[in-house]
Design goal:
It contains 9 helices and 18 strands. It folds into 2 domains: about 5-165 and about 275-395, FAD/NAD(P)-binding domain (3-Layer(bba) Sandwich), CATH 3.50.50.60; about 175-270, FAD/NAD(P)-binding domain (3-Layer(bba) Sandwich). The strands form 5 sheets. Strands 3-2-1-7-18 form a 5-stranded parallel beta sheet, with helices on one face. The protein has a 5-stranded parallel beta sheet with strand order 8-15-9-10-11, with helices on one face. The radius of gyration is 22 Å and the shape is globular. It is about 25% helix and about 20% strand. It binds flavin-adenine dinucleotide and NADP nicotinamide-adenine-dinucleotide phosphate (NAP).
Length: about 450
């Protein structure tokens, strides 16, 4: 029997475990599975931790989430095709859940499946090496509780370690003498820490947008967002503004490229994350920016230079959980011999085709269609179904709602691509709702 190592039990790792579990339930012979997870529980980024820097074992802290984090896209854009929100919660719930109920949904499917004993918790993978003599991978892991090392051979390795945990930390002239606190969004935990402060947020993507809003909502005196390429351009509430790039700091004063200057109390770098795989040698290591179609991966998952190595979820993400499922189902069928890989030349040509299309994209609607087509391309070849066209429409409506009002887009309701039911609206506007507990959300 072949053996497969899955590294990480976040949403991607759980999708892979679920895919094999579904095949097993149908009576297929599945490989022996070992999933290594460095945290004590599954859920990946969705496991909030108060810790920053290192965790209880001295490993780098994986969590990048924070208090009061709500889904930034409608749940009807991330719903699993085989496990609806209605099924999990027993009734329709509003479209933008806070972190905790979303986490409960993600792990709810895993717990129902009953594959927990496939996971070795508190096990960090330190090294993956390809042994060409046997066409296998040697995987070296450390049991973090007992501090013992293990080395085992596997026929396939699935890398599901995420790519929003290792901060990208550019520097700025004079920032080392800034008198206040300077952190990356990865270490942001509680917006209330910045109450009454003049906050500078550097970046112009989802983290910048959400951390700016959170901080204002919980009492920051003012928030200035600095963009490099272009502004987010929303109709911000009073107290939030956007300025171009920072040329230098002079004490607490930032000098912007348009000649403006402002004084700040604290700085949060929302400058993105690195794809970081310290356990992989160069020949196996994906090196990419955060983009919709990273190079070197056939169908966005199969490592071209060694097709027994699979990466999940390495794309820039409009789609999340359902895309991870489509990838995991496809990967499973490769491992189980139900999908044959074409020649290397054909795989490279397929990658080139997708990347050429990606490079011609000009707006979010085209990005959404691109990722929808990618998900469809995978799912039509496996037994995973979802109303992808409805999801795409939901994404486009969501984009319009954000343009209309950055404060109230989370108050809208969407239709499920699984059950076709409409979500109810939440009783309180997101901008007014200070409580993010599951009890409040479901009440
Ligand atoms: C601040 C923030 C907010 C987000 N909000 C949303 C949202 O609202 N909606 C949404 O759909 N998506 C959101 N995302 C996107 C997020 O990427 C996905 O939801 C999802 O968590 C990705 O799953 P993953 O399994 O690829 O990675 P992760 O969730 O990062 O899980 C990777 C797992 O691998 C483990 N691991 C890492 N290295 C090792 C190792 N060497 N050995 C063993 N285990 C290892 C980690 O402990 C972790 O459990 C957000 C991301 C961030 C950063
Ligand atoms: N649920 C939520 O509310 C929530 C909250 C936060 C994050 N998220 C998720 O987290 C993921 C990561 O989002 P992210 O915003 O952290 O990363 P991201 O989307 O990769 O964006 C990185 C940002 O950093 C900027 N940047 C990089 N280097 C810079 C520099 N030297 N100077 C100035 N700006 C620089 C980029 O600017 P350019 O455009 O110029 O490249 C870009 O705006 C996304 O999937 C998102 O959905 C969700």
């Amino acid at each position: 029997m072949s053996r497969i190592a899955i590294i990480g039990a976040g949403p991607c790792g759980l999708s892979q475990l679920r895919a094999f579990h579904v095949a097993q339930a149908k009576g297929d012979d599945i490989p022996e599975i070992v999933c290594f997870e460095k945290q004590n529980d599954w859920g990946g980024l969705w496991n909030y931790s108060w810790r920053t820097g290192t965790d209880e074992y001295g490993e780098s802290c994986h969590n990048s989430m924070y208090k009061y984090l709500w889904s930034n896209g409608p749940k009807e854009c991330l719903e699993f095709g085989d496990y609806s929100f209605d099924e999990h919660f027993g009734r329709p719930i509003p479209s933008f859940p806070p972190r905790q109920p979303l986490r409960e949904y993600i792990i709810g499917r895993a717990e129902k499946s009953g594959f927990r004993d496939w996971v070795r918790f508190a096990h960090a993978v330190r090294e993956v090496r390809f042994i060409s003599d046997t066409n296998q991978f040697l995987v070296r892991a450390v049991d973090l509780v007992n501090q013992t090392d293990t080395e085992e051979m596997f026929d396939y390795v699935v890398v599901a370690t995420g790519h929003f945990s290792v901060p990208h930390l550019p520097t700025f002239s004079g920032i080392d003498a800034f008198p206040g606190r300077v952190i990356h969004g990865h270490d942001f935990r509680d917006a209330a820490e910045f109450r009454d402060q003049r906050l500078l947020v550097i970046g112009a993507s989802y983290s910048a947008e959400d951390i700016a809003l959170q901080s204002k909502k919980y009492g920051a005196a003012s928030v200035t967002c600095s963009y490099r390429t272009g502004p987010m351009g929303f109709d911000w509430p009073d107290g939030i503004e956007e300025l171009p790039t920072i040329e230098s700091f002079d004490g607490a004063t930032a000098h912007f490229s348009n000649g403006e200057r402002r004084e700040f109390d604290s700085i949060i770098l929302c400058t993105g994350y690195l794809h970081h795989f310290p356990f992989l040698p160069k020949a196996l290591r994906l090196k990419t920016t955060n983009r919709l179609y990273p190079g070197g991966l056939y169908k966005g998952i199969v490592w071209l230079d060694n097709p027994r190595l699979i990466y999940l979820g390495m794309q820039d993400q409009y789609y999340t959980f359902s895309m991870f499922d489509a990838q995991a189902w496809y990967a499973r069928d490769i491992v189980m011999g139900q999908i044959d890989l074409p020649s290397r030349g054909e795989m490279q040509a397929d990658i080139d085709k997708w990347q050429q299309r990606e490079e011609a994209l000009t707006n979010p609607a085209e990005d959404i269609d691109f990722q929808t087509d990618y998900c469809k391309d995978l799912s039509t070849k496996v037994d995973y179904s979802l109303d992808w066209d409805l999801v795409a429409q939901n994404f486009k409506d969501w984009e319009h709602h954000k343009e209309e009002s950055i404060l109230s887009y989370r108050d809208k309701a969407f239709r499920s691509p699984v059950t076709q039911t409409y979500a109810p609206t939440h009783h309180t506007s997101w901008w007014e709702e200070m409580n993010d507990s599951t009890e409040m959300f479901l009440s």
